[in-house]
Design brief:
The structure is a homotetramer.
Chain A: H1 14-23, H2 35-48, E1 53-57, H3 60-71, E2 76-81, H4 85-88, H5 93-98, E3 101-105, H6 114-118, E4 131-138, H7 149-161, E5 165-170, H8 173-180, E6 195-199, E7 209-213, H9 222-228, H10 237-247, H11 251-270, E8 277-278, E9 286-290, H12 293-300, E10 306-309, E11 314-318, H13 325-340
Parallel strand pairs in A: 2-3, 2-4, 4-5, 5-6
Antiparallel strand pairs in A: 1-7, 6-7, 8-9, 9-11, 10-11
Helix pairs in contact in A: 1-10, 2-10, 8-11, 11-13, 12-13
Chain lengths: ~350, ~350, ~350, ~350
């Protein structure tokens, strides 16, 4: 059953699967001392700049928790949006594994601003307060919205002036770049982001993300932390080969553009349906909407998707690299049908 | 460059790679609610018995730390051999992620006995002592040795009498079954093991292990702990499909038998070489030997392998599912050549 | 310099100091197996009921973190007010030591309600969400406000219906009882609270709090957790003797009544001063007010006190067991003087 | 019932109790910003040198865990003797609270040597191994033995050459200084120790230890770590006043000399008794002995003491600042009587 529940219901992009087969040739040193992982460094440097260091890991929670640990001390706290994945969807791993306190801030659209950051950016030197050392933002956000490069630049400047570092959860960073029509570095390295979690799985990989260090001075001990966080792949070549397949050419961009286009098509198809309200700007590959609960329930029997907020009845529809126009059109038709039913 | 450094220098077995392609068909629910992971439960129950529950994870350290957490409370300690992977090769993850104290015991051969366990199995009720709640053994051991089913039965009985549970690190459990010529359950479920870490990666998978609960009464919260330990794969179908490919037929056994046979062939070829001493019984896919340091250094330029103990000059040679008789013979010839050089 | 900064600027009540001298007689078994700690159990049972178990600890953060750990599993989360001491004043210890996620809720007055709890009480069974297992409330609150017994009863019923337990941070529980004019059990044991942190230090002890288990079925391993949290006093008799001195007679009540009366006197004296606004109901021993920043700065040179919220200019004035009417009157006079200056 | 179970069965030295009363005068700023804690810095600098920084804490486990955290990163390991208090008597707190891996080494006498350290001092740069960053020694040791200053100097030089730091658990440091007849700094600051846990409770305080930083370059964040480890006393003046009472004059030395003398007296009295073997050099305030189990059991009904090793029948007798010659003589007489009974 196809659906719009999550971009990780999709499978492996054929080019990525092919790359796995190519990498499956003979022996390679394990734990990252292989030719694929070495080459991956060049690929990442090409996208993010010469100082970039990339550490492949298994999943997004792992990337976030390893990256955040590398940027912090045991007494650190992380300022983030209340809706941030690290705050609501990682089973408490940042607290449990890294001992980090998350200082979360409600936002209207999933985006921090310097004013919102300042709600939590205080108390340095006071040992009663976990020390705000990091600002973590998500691009594209969990609400399908985007920061402009200027907005991220302002956040980075604000944070750095206060001796805080900036972490970017880039689980859907390709969707952001595609939507902004900008190179990846334009809203990361070039505007002051220190460390990012690069997302591959949602954009066509089988398994593979990376802790990407843009500012080497911002981190210590990444390799030890990756191992201690149980994110060190023994046969790492196969994670790296996937990331290379995604990033060396333009597969990352083709996949993301496609997913974004499908979300736009879905929004366009749904917007005219009476009784359905699109609740967020559709800037990446997510569409959020409010519709009558009983309609949502009937529709869900035909296409899988999740509630976003059970209190308000808001639901989330995600498009993936393999969502087809036919999927979208069938879904929009079904929605219209159920609404009028 | 081929070599004998580790069984995880090998790639993906072709049948496993083929299974990935088959599983790459359409959408599947993420995070384990897919048809492959469902089917995997049956496959594991076929091997380990009807009460078995299998939780796929990314790697062996993850499997161990998730399994051990599920069996323990915050004040627990784990009795293990000093050479146990959890004690020496996991970057301190059991301590750092799970807060577990490891009560390690030196052993002659990597194997615990009831007497050795009793060196640490005491102090219950005394809050000054981290409480020994678990005995963790490895089969086959890190030294390439094997427990008999009777030995494991004795350990389990001893532990259970003291209200301790038994964890088995089965990173190379297939090699053990192949060498013992016994079903997997004969030395696990049937003799009282409560939870095991099932190893797939070293036996031909790309990435995939599992926390396998044999005694459901021994654990709580496995699914929460897997997520909190960052071991929950979003596209889990691809981990499960690999494990199915390994375990549904006899691929697990063919691969393990082959690796074991290669180790035996290697031992046989090396044993007659003057100046080389095989230091451990060769019961699985590992050969340990002492040879002159300068010979080891020269040989290492031709075939990669690791020191086991830099103090004694002991080295370790591992065979994998893809080690060929030609690899072995070439290595043995090179060793003989360097020894006489 | 006397002041209104904190009730822990005060010293030791003379009766407590005398009790230390009495307890300093000969040898006692360490770590709590002494006659004072034994007797303390009776004293606590007298106040809180026959099932009560009391575990003396060093400080309030310790009491909270030990108690919360005893009530939770590794994957638990704690619902609390955003202003809760555990959330804002414990240096992240609940996260760092216990791995707990705090699900905080903004409140108008420092008090949770069932509606506010429901903002975070959801997601059980979903491993992506740290599981809400505990509701933690503070009585009297960090804002000097009080729950009625009925309000706490409603919270406990609501929590228990959802298989959650209730923790009460009673750092200033004596002030609450004095103000409510009720026995301690009337708003704890009798209305369903499971575990509380009993505060002694702010009410006249030198050092001493206790984890007080009202519902023994709600906890496991308290003694191990107390040791593991480094809260086990070797010469525990001296902590217990202080708590006995406080609780066996009515010293706890006399001290709390006095502190509350001083806060009321302060509020009465300040309320008529033009330009000063008392911002919270004065229900215990705290007075919160907004006054011009430059007045606050001048006043602070004469009497020490803290900002509560630097954004709004709200300040906090605390009264202690040893605050005198003279202190209050001098402060009120100084305030009036500075306001008119 | 008096006995020889532990030096923390003793009470508060009268001079310390008197100091508490003196410090109980008026208001003091809490959390260490008081005149006593300020003065304590001078007192510690007098003993340990001008760079010394002292952080009062509640207990020895707290001092060790705070100090070790301040010296380490999240991926660090600590080399210690197998008998070290941090390894066997702290309920796993170093692992659970600080995430530290302890790399323990069996020793004949509780003392590390450079050779023993080298059993664990290896593997830097290998992320599979928790990184050895600290050597922790105890003076006097848990076995009542002493390091000479030269022995500690050798350990410090050895550690520093390998970029490791040295921590000293000085729970009974006064007994060591008294026995060596040397100033405290002679075997700490002057020979290269970086951080120590200074023990007060066993030497006559009610409650009070300190993290003492001898090399400020060796630590970061002590104040945050103290709070996060729940070791920050609100009414800290009373901990500091006790430490001042101990250290400003010679009370620390008088108490320690007396306890040591009582241990020597006990050893002298017991040594001639046939069937009793003193098993360790008596260099501080502890006597270890082996005697028939049934004799130990009968004797224990008259004087409390603990088994040290239930396997060998070794027992431990501790002397305290308040042990009297009469206590010793009565005990020795009872022992002789039970032996001949």
């Amino acid at each position: 059953m196809r659906g719009f529940a999550s971009d990780n219901y999709a499978g492996i992009h054929p080019e990525v699967l092919a790359a796995l087969a190519v990498a499956n040739d003979g022996h390679q040193v394990s734990y990252g001392d292989d030719v694929y992982t070495e080459h991956l460094q060049e690929v990442f440097r090409g996208h993010f700049g010469e100082r970039t260091e990339a550490y492949p890991v298994f999943n997004g929670t792992g990337a976030n928790v390893v990256g955040l640990q590398a940027m912090t001390r045991r007494w650190s706290a992380v300022i983030c949006a209340a809706t941030a994945h690290i705050n609501v969807d990682e089973g408490g791993a940042p607290e449990k594994v890294a001992g980090l306190k998350l200082l979360s801030v409600p936002t209207p659209d999933g985006k921090l601003t310097t004013d919102l950051i300042d709600q939590q950016a205080w108390g340095w030197g006071d040992e009663h307060r976990a020390q705000p050392h990091i600002v973590s933002i998500t691009q594209s956000t969990e609400l399908g919205t985007l920061y402009t490069p200027a907005e991220i630049a302002a956040i980075c400047a604000h944070a750095h002036e206060r001796d805080m570092l900036v972490h970017l959860d880039g689980s859907r960073i390709a969707n952001a770049a595609a939507s902004l029509d900008l190179p990846l570095r334009a809203f990361t390295t070039d505007v002051g982001v220190d460390v990012l979690s690069f997302g591959g799985t949602k954009n066509g990989l089988m398994v593979g993300e990376a802790v990407v260090v843009l500012n080497p001075g911002a981190v210590t001990g990444v390799k030890y932390l990756r191992k201690g966080a149980m994110q060190l792949a023994s046969k790492m070549r196969f994670v790296s080969a996937q990331l290379i397949a995604l990033l060396e050419g333009d597969l990352w961009l083709r996949n993301a553009r496609h997913a974004n286009a499908m979300a736009a098509r879905l929004a366009d198809a749904v917007r005219p349906v009476p009784g359905v309200t699109i609740t967020r700007p559709v800037q990446a590959n997510a569409v959020f909407a409010i519709l009558p609960a009983e309609v949502a329930d009937r529709l869900r029997k035909r296409f899988r998707f999740y509630d976003w907020d059970a209190h308000t009845g808001e639901v989330r529809w995600m498009c993936a690299f393999d969502t087809t126009p036919g999927d979208v059109d069938a879904f929009a038709a079904a929605l219209a049908e159920e609404m009028s039913g």
